[in-house]
Input
Amino acid sequence: MNKLLPIAIAILGGLSIAFFGVHLTGYTAAFAMPKSFNTVLSMLLWDIFVVQLLGFGLLAAAFAFLYSRLCTGSFLNSVIVVFGACQVSLMYPFTYSIYWVNFFVILCALIVGYLTAKVTYNNTLENAY
Output
């Protein structure tokens, strides 16, 4: 039973990141983009760093950091299970399509949160996996 508790917490964490991240992204998507951002690349960078990172990224990084410190802290539970639960709940209904910018922002944020937790508490990266 004790082995299932960290996985259940990771799944609930992924679902909560999806739920609260959608609401936060609704607010960050309302930020006005400057007129000088008129190329496709600048619009993509705005979507990554302002909309998705502030909406999902900070939330995912904070959860991965706290989960790594308070629970088992394995890479599988801290990143992969949380990411899978989050992305399955964020898939568009009936099409099973993924918004790739969101996909990469959440994955990178979870990895950064996990590695930050491992490095800041005197664990070397060799012991992190």
Notes: The two ends are 23 Å apart (CA to CA). Helices lie at 4-28, 40-70, 75-90, 100-120. The longest helix spans residues 40-70.
